[in-house]
Amino acid sequence: MAEFSSVPAGRLADVSQPTVEIRRSRRRKRSVQAYRDGAKIVVMMPASFSAAEEKRWVDTMVQRIERRELRRVPTDDALMERAARLSTRYLDGRADGAKVRWVDNQRSRWGSCTPSDRTIRLSRRLQGMPEWVLDYVLLHELTHLIEPDHGARFWQWLERYPRTERARGFLDGAAMAAGLPQLLDD
Predict the structure, then answer these.
(1) b/e 150-165 (16+ beta carbons within 10 angstroms → b)
(2) Which value, in Å, is the radius of gyration of the alpha carbons in the chain?
(3) pLDDT less than 70: residues of the chain
(4) Topology (CATH level 3) of domain 76-177
(5) Neighbours of 2 (CB within 10 A)
(6) Cβ 67 vs Cβ 13: under 8 Å
(7) What per-residue confidence (pLDDT) applies to 74?
(8) Which positions ≥6 away from 77 have C-beta within 8 Å?
């Protein structure tokens, strides 16, 4: 039977300090594996490992996950290209941002848009989340270049993206799992 415990992870790409869930198994003899499950990292290891071995392997596996996620993080230039493709596909090309970039200072929202200078900022908390979630947040902010507020016309544009509700649910769950307050929608 496996034993489960959660410990805070120290150095993750996600700003919100997700947890690490350790799954020990008596059947597992030597191998250690890890994967991200939403806002947490799951590390599977043998039950026979000492506390020192557990700590060493958790640190090692968390670093591996972080490095892998950082390799997948799109650059600001790639975000601009992605925004242009999304605008063309879902917004009839009507939303063209002047600049799209990652930021570290968004504590109460996933992204923000300044329609006057057409800039979009995305929280680094989104890094490592599924691409369709990133696409939703980027589309949400692009839609503000067409409709500045969250009125009916705003949601009509955004509902063109088929994963809108699913992405909103994912973001709500990610915020809850990370112990964050309910992040604002824009």
Answers:
(1) eeeebeebbeebeebe
(2) 19
(3) 1-18, 39, 70-73, 182-186
(4) Zincin-like (3.30.2010)
(5) 12
(6) no
(7) 80
(8) none
Distance in angstroms (rounded) separating the CA atoms of residues 63 and 67: 6
pTM listed for this prediction = 0.63
Domain ranges of the chain: 3-71, 76-177
pLDDT tens, position by position, 79-119:
999 999 999 999 999 998 789 999 988 877 899 999 999 99
Distance CA(186)–CA(180), nearest Å, equals 16
d(CA 58, CA 47): 14
Residues 6+ apart with CB under 8 A from 100: 76, 79, 80, 82, 83, 119, 120, 121, 122, 138
The Cα–Cα gap between 78 and 161 comes to: 20
**Which has the closest alpha carbon to 174: 42, 11, 38, 65?**
38
pLDDT value of residue 125: 87
- Distance between CA 82 and CA 139 in Å, rounded? 10
Task: Check residue 1 and give its pLDDT.
Answer: 36
| pLDDT on residue 18 | 53
User: Nearest to residue 129, comparing CAs of 52, 183, 58, 53?
Assistant: 183
Give the span between the Cα atoms of 26 and 24, in whole angstroms: 7
